[in-house]
């Protein structure tokens, strides 16, 4: 199948041409603050949750705001989420939305950045890589790497648990996804460093991303990507030549075929692997950090999680069945963490056809976004929305959650293919850590959140580490 047409990255000439086109079009949009204002754009970037909740209270489930030169239609709430991802999904392109143009320069044409038949074919080829036997192997890697990482934590002092989680999730991803030993001296370090440097582009200030030339975030991304690509293609060529199953996800992707017997090309493999690294590393480390933060703040919930682990596992290593089905207290705490801090916190699209929602018609060619983060904090859907209450996800309570109200990993055909892998990473590491270490927040610590590319603790997550056990 033909590779998707390339998307031009957002640069200053493109911004200018889009601004001119928008002025000429002047299509009516839902109400909101639509005048050009760099100050307002920066205010939205600093506090998208607060500003979005204010706009929702003022305008309702659909409104317009402006990001730099672009008017963006925001759609908020369960019905809006379901419309964008399921019932009205044919009206939207993810690839041509704002997130796609930011991610394509790093991830290429992976599952996150493609639409239509190409996306569906790639998804069908990739799905078997996450079947049960492969997940059994992956959990064994997760537990082993978690044990190594716990032993490195300084007892009696303060450690940055977010930095610790990022290093650990990278080690897990390298072994379970790629079969690369993260402890293999220079090779493991060079791979992790190249990926982190490339990923740093997504943390750049929004105003700097369109800039080009030496010293810009774009130039640093290109250097890091060249290094990363050289290592990835070398690994792909080596693995094709050896033609053996290394027990990792890459082995499955190399062997997988579509209905016509065709597999991934080297370039397609590179793009899918980068996409899975992004999901398996970045989102898992953030979610794990937020889970540990909330458990440290809520000792009753932590006590229930620990008592359950001791009763069910009795000191044994967790397996897929235990992590997926036999630890409901951990599951509820995990789900509530995802409600408060959803990894896929907003879902930008470009409308490819006109649609109507909540009494407003939105023309084709409009940038649209829904937000799980905002929807998860609506008090009419989740009472006392800022509180950590795992019991919201007890079996009977969960049945009462409206369709489209809870979607931390997106929805519909675009729901994350590696969601199960990410769940297992967070739960396995939390289980190993909490059985051996006590965690406490330093006095006066206040969590601050970075928003790109996924929600994460700004400046790290300091924790006082005790011996536990």
Automatic annotation (TrEMBL):
Keywords carried by this UniProt record: Heme, Iron, Metal-binding, Monooxygenase, Oxidoreductase
Single GO term (MF): heme binding
Residue numbers binding heme: 416
Gene3D superfamilies in the record: Cytochrome P450
Superkingdom: Bacteria
Pfam families according to UniProt: p450
Required co-factors: heme
Entry annotated with the keyword Oxidoreductase: yes
SUPFAM superfamilies membership: Cytochrome P450 (SSF48264)
Family according to the record: Belongs to the cytochrome P450 family.
The protein, known as: Cytochrome P450
Organism: Patulibacter medicamentivorans
